[in-house]
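Researcher: We're teaching a course module on how sequence relates to structure. For the next exercise, students receive a sequence and then see the predicted structure as tokens, so they can try to spot secondary structure elements on their own. Here is the exercise chain.
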Amino acid sequence: MTTAEDNDVTMQMSVEQRLFRDTSAEFIQERASIPATRALSKQGEAYDREWWATATEFGWTALLVPEDLGGGSASGEGVIDLVTIVEMLGAHVSPGPLSVVSTVIAGLTHPAATGEREDLIQALLAGEKVATWAVQAPGADWAPLEPAATATRTAGGWMLEGSARSVEFARESDVMAVVARTDDGVITLLVPRDADGVAITGGDSVDLVRKFGDVTFSGVAVKAQDVVAEESAAPEIIAYQARVMNLLQVAEAIGAIGKVFDFTVQWGFDRYSFGRPLVAYQALKHRYADALLWLEASRAIVAAAARAVQEDRADAQLLVSSAKSYVGDRGVQIIQDCVQLHGGLGVTMDHDLNVYLRRVMVARQTYGTPRDHREVIADLTGL
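Model: And here is the predicted structure for the students to work with:
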């Protein structure tokens, strides 16, 4: 469904922006839509490495990378362009590690990051390697600066112990950016997935292809040069990564929710009951109206959060947590209502509604639940 607002945005785009958006949309439609997701799920796979390497050729992984490292974006606003791509991926429930890879890249390229990472960044840009973020402590609320992994200084670097839960694509990644506690604060360390002492359990989630694993670190030796964020800079870098990751979670959810609402409205016009289309019934009109109101409010707060993160404003965390809280609650409610509006058909595994609902539910729960982010809002506003 194309709106007047969509047309206005398109008119404001440069030729390069339109080309970037349109070619990406065509590729997602042809190679990364729901049939591809269902096929991967049947094979027990999260994504296809060859497909991912092709996807990176569109520049998706380069959007948060400075130009001197081979990055850049069509608009000059990498966060905004990345949100646009992630929304498209959400609209098709696409597979792939774009959000988590982008979050790791955000840490690697942060001005306060340490060490030379050009080789790894280039490998991530080209899809030759995939990185993930190990930050969540087992059995704890979302608190990225309070990890369960610990790092002890050694003669040659660090010794890593402990664990991290719900590490996205833990088995499918090549390297992990692990957040760990030290005697002086927190740091981020780069650890190869197959390093000695790394053990991964679990893997599946409610989503058909978004996989997570719990990771245990037992005496993992990490070289000094593999420190990405030292104690003095780590809180700033990790907080920025958390904002990026949660922004991408809600952006993907918005893409999915918008698509579900559009085809549910179309279903209401196409489906007749007692000689009238479903949308003609007053009681159902109210439900469509409520869903549209929540959807547009969700879009507005996500757009505001994206702009704040792009500009690195002081209110960025407040807006991101507000978006995660609001979209997390209302998004699931919108899709559940759309399930009801489809009647019995909506609860079948064969209907795409099922796939969309799973994606939005996982986006709601990962990297902080709505409740977690309401607590962040309360802290930020002094409540």
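Model: If you want an answer key for the exercise: The beta strands are 131-134, 150-153, 157-168, 175-182, 185-192, 198-201, 212-223, 227-229, 272-273, 276-277. The chain has twelve helices and ten strands.
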